[in-house]
Each structure stands twice: as C-alpha cells, then as structure tokens.
Amino acid sequence: MLRIRLCEEAFVEPILAGEVHCPCHLYSGEEAVAVGVCAALTDRDYVFGNHRSHGHYLAKGGSMQEMVAEVFCRETGCSRGRGGSMHLIAPDVGMLGSAPIVAGTISLALGAALSSTIRRDGRVAVTFFGDGATGEGVLYECMSFAALKKLPIIFVCENNYYATHMPIRECRVEREIHEIARPFGIESRQIDGNDVLAVYDAGLHAVEKCRSGNGPVFIECLTYRYRGHVGPDDNVQGSHTDIRPREEIDLWREKDPIKRFEGYLSDQRIMTQEDLKMARAEVTREVTDAHDFARRSPLPRAEELEKYVFA
Amino acid sequence: MSSHRKLSYSLAINEALHQMMAEDPSVFLIGQGVKSPWYVGDTAQGLLERFGTDRVIDTPVSENAMTGAAVGAALTGMRPVVVHPRVDFMFYAFDPIINEAANWYYMNGGKLPAPVVFWGIINRGGEQAAQHSQSLHGMFAQVPGLKVVMPATPYDAKGLMIAAIREPNPVVFIDDRWLYKLEEPVPEEIYEVEIGKGNVLRPGTDVTVVASSFMVQESLKASEMLVKEGINIEVIDLRTVKPLDENLILASVQKTGRLVVVDGGWRTCGLSAEVSALVSERAFGALKVPVVRITLPDCPAPASATLEKAYYRTSVDIIRAVKGII
C-alpha cells in the first residue's frame, strides 16, 4: 500500500510541472482494495483494470519502473509509451491490461474466466471497476453470463462515491451497490474497502469459491480517493472544480488504509515504529529510482509510430 | 476425388470450423444461436455434438458482453470465433471490437495480441427493413488494428475463415446469406486464403470492375452478359476489404484505364470511396474516364419489396455502368 501511495503522490509534482502530460487518475486512498484482492491471487490469475489502475498494476506485481516510465510516455514503459497512465499491462504476472472506457474491461475479465473454465486450469479473473460503471449495461450482461456458467470471476466494485464529478446520490436511486448482484444469484457483500485485512479476507474467500467452481463473487469495497477524478486536483468545494466538501475528505483521511494497517502492525508488535520508518525510506528510494529511470529513458521514436498496429 | 468435391458456401464455413476446432483446442465458437440453424444456417452443424458445450457456446442476447468475453479469452491465449447472426446487432459490440480488440495490441506497446474472429452474417432482403439488412464492413475497415475479410465464393469462405482463425490480430469476417447456397469445388484439406490478397476472377481488358462479397457474383453475371456483346471486363474480387490489395487494383486499372467499383455498402465514406480514392491518388494518369461507383444509396434498407428492388444493386446496374464508360 505504501508503495502505491508514495508512487502516486510522487506524480503530483511532475504533473504540476508539466513534465507528465497524460491523464493520471491517482489511486491515493484506495490502496487497500487493490492490495487486499491481489494478495489473494497468484501470478497465474488474471486482473483487468480501468482508468485508475496504477494500484492494480503495482499490487499485481507489475514493475514500478516500467509503470512510471509509461506515465512519462517513454519507450521503456510497460506499454512502450503507446498507452500512458490508462493502459498498464504486465502479462507475465497476470495484469492483462487496463482501459478507460467505463466498464469496458469487465467483459474482458469475463472472457478470461471463460478461458479458465474451458481449459480447466483453475485460474481466477478479477475485474476492478468503479461505482460509475454500475451505470453501464454491460456489467449486468456480464454478471448474468458469469452466473449462468458459474465462471471464476470476481467483480470488485471500488465504490469511491463519485463518478468523475457526480456524487453517487445523483447517479443511483439505490445506493447499496452490492445488491445489484443478488438478482443474478451471485454471492455478494459490501466491505470496508479501507481495511486491507477485511479486503484480503473477502478476496481469499472469493478466490476459494471461484477455484472450486462456485463463482462468480461480487465484492463492493467502500473507499475514497483523496485526489479528484483526474490529476492532483482534490476537487474541493470552493476551488474551480468545486465538488467535495473539505470535511468529507478530512473524514476519510481519518480512515486512511495505510495509517490503519500501520496501527495494526504496531499494535500486534509485527513492526516497530523504526521498522515502519525504514520501510518508508526504502519505498521512497524505490520511487525515486523509478522516476530517475523514467527520466533517463528514451522517448518512442517517430519512425516507429505505426509499429504495433498489427501483431 | 477430393479436388472435385463440391461444397456450398455455408458448408465450406462449417468445414473450416470443424477442422480448426479439431486442429487447435484453443479454438471455440461463441454467440447467439450457434446451435440453431434459424440463426446461423448450417454453418455450425455438427459442432456442438462433436466439441461439446464448452467450446460451442450458445449465449443469451448480450452482444456487448459476449463479444467482450471473446476478446478477453483471446487475450488469455484462446482463439475464439464470436458469431453475430445479423451484422446489425454488432453495433452493441462496437466497444469490445473497436475500443478494446482493435486497440489492445497497439495501446499496450505490442505486449498482448487479440487473436479473435468477429464473424458477422449479412442477412438482408425479404422485406426485413433497416435493422435486419445492414453491412458494416466500411465502418470496420476504417478502424486501425482490424482486418476485414468478405469471401465471395465457397473456396474463399473456407480459406479465409481458416486464415482468420490463425491470424494473430482481430479479424472481422463478414459473409452473406445470399451466398450460402452457392456451390463449387472446395478442397477437403485445410488451406488458407491469404488475408490482404485479392483475386482476378475474370481477366479482361476493357473495364476493371472491383467488387466484394455478394456483389462479386453480380459482377460475374454482368461479365457473362457483356462478353456476348464483345465487352471484356476484368472482375476483381477483393476478398479482403482491409488491408486492400492495392497493387492488384492499380495494375488492372493501368491495363484497362476504366474503373467501376461495386459495393454492397453505403456510398459515403465507404469501401467504394476508398478504392476510388486509391486509384485517383496512384493511377490517375491511367484513367481514361472518371471512376464510376455502384453502391447502396445513402438510405436505410426499406421493407417493401418494391422499394427493396430499387435499393439493392444487381448485374443490370453493373452492365449499365460499364456500357456508360466505353
């Protein structure tokens, strides 16, 4: 979680300085969801992300250097500078891609789960999507088919209460998103998405169900993004984006997933304050190295503009 | 023996599917109606019995999700064929076809290909009206990352389906119900018709007629009539709409100096416009007369048979066009 947080926050300065241009949807505040779910998976399992997938990519085991280089649109990036922040991929560890068409990758995860069923290889597919995606019809098509075929897919809804600028109360009559899976006979639950251990438990349970042929599973994770929909702007009321009350952001900061897990580690005497400080220093170094790597890396060459149109 | 064995266009597709599914366990067929001749004619006959419900998947009416599932399966190493028994319903699946499959390889820097076949069946005529008659090959052809094939003969139907399944990129395979009963010798063995290669079906010297899919058959009919009057048209079957076999078209126009483009799609920004633009750019000097296009009008397909007769183009239109420029 700390790797994700520090990596995300390290983008703020280069974005403000105009060094990073591509749209970055920062994951700060939501780390427990990606980390909790991905910790329950193996490299052989599949993950599909969305527009806000830095966290999914890192939690699934993608290289931080390659991700930062991608955000800087360099040739050494995980998508060779052709995708940017919204197209992160690491096939070797099962991160099969991310895309910003809302709900667009849910069906891809459905297909990955279908492959698993046809090949009987026991792999599980996870689709991460936001509360905004519950407005897209394809989600319901996918839940229906997944339930019909008992596919090993975990639908993970990251409910951060905002679909870009729209508060959830302006998007849905029924705010209990986890209820949408029940009409399809899909086991569904709502959990505290800022409690990494709760997410991990839910993930383990869902993976176990899927592997034993009793998928799919739906998990709604209640969480919050500290930054606005895109970029470092926090969308606070009174600023030009003028969306969220300051108190709301402060309230969620109290429930910060990293702070809470650090508290747990300390209370349980798993890590001392000194250990935590060292971990933070180590991650800071890793992030700095990744930025150095990205800045040193070559840009894609104009002559290779059309190189990857066809395989 | 085998080289003279005749097969219909639809059974040629069926044989391609049987052989590819037998050859490669990663090939599977998914889509609405794959077990129903009402939807897919006899193209899928015997597949379910032979390969089972794991690999012959009849689906609910969810084109977007089912097409996306095929793309997702392709990204995990499978070779899916997803069928749309009517092209019109593919509009629901444009997101997985265009946003996802066509872009995936490029936007991920060549890390993961999407080898999926999007099979759309043109099912027009019979007073079916605007939403049961369309062909979208021109729209698909405009999208980078997609290849688009449209077989006009049983031989090509089999060979292009096999090539499409083996292709590492997403391929839109569009066939036409009006061709399903057409028969000709089709080899029993597995063979590919190369994607991107057209075919001169009738050599001629007077006018080049470029066509695809069903309109190739109308062009051949026109050729038979015209030859009786001493007019020799060269009929080019594009077979692949994208990438176009540009050199084949250009070489023919260099020879004849006259071009009629025949397309079963709409006029504006479509296949006929593309072929015409290609010749304007690269063989303008060879043209003795302006290019003539025969296309559907920019009008939705009508129901009434009287209007349908006015809507669809036939060999009569091709003959008239050819005679108008010589």
Q: Any descriptors?
A:
heterodimer, A: 311 residues, alpha/beta, six-stranded parallel beta sheet, two-stranded antiparallel ribbon, 11 helices, B: 326 residues, seven-stranded mixed beta sheet, five-stranded mixed beta sheet, 12 helices, 14 strands, globular
End-to-end Cα distance of chain A, whole Å, is 35 Å
In terms of quaternary structure, the protein is heterodimer
The secondary structure category of chain A is: alpha/beta
Query: What is the H/E string of chain A?
Result: HHHEHHEHEHEEEEHEHHH
Q: Could you give the count of β-strands of chain A?
A: 8
Tally of individual helices of chain B: 12
Compute the separation of the termini of chain B in Å. Answer: 44 Å
Number of helices of chain A: 11
As a percent range, the share of helical residues of chain A equals 25-40%
The secondary-structure class of chain B comes to alpha/beta
pLDDT averaged over residues of chain A? 96
Low-confidence segments of chain B, given as residue ranges, are none
What is the strand tally of chain B? 14
> Largest sheet of chain B, order of strands side by side?
3-2-4-5-7-6-12
| Biggest protein-protein contact in the assembly | A-B, 45 and 43 residues
- How would a textbook summarize the main sheet of chain A? 6 strands, parallel
Structure description:
Chain A is α/β, with parallel strands linked by helices and 311 residues long. Chain A has helices at 2-9, 12-16, 31-39, 54-59, 64-71, 106-119, 137-149, 196-211, 246-254, 257-267, 273-296; strands spanning 46-48, 95-97, 125-130, 153-159, 162-163, 166-167, 187-192, 217-222. Chain A has a six-stranded parallel sheet, sandwiched between helices. Chain A is globular. Chain B has 326 residues and is α/β, with parallel strands linked by helices. Chain B is globular, with a radius of gyration of 19 Å. The model of chain B has no long low-confidence stretch (mean pLDDT 97). Chain A binds chain B through residues 46, 48, 77-83, 87, 89, 91, 96-97, 99, 101, 104-119, 125, 137-138, 141-142, 144-145, 148, 307-311, and chain B through 28, 54-55, 57, 59-60, 62, 64-78, 80, 95-96, 99-100, 104-113, 115, 144-145, 147, 168-169.
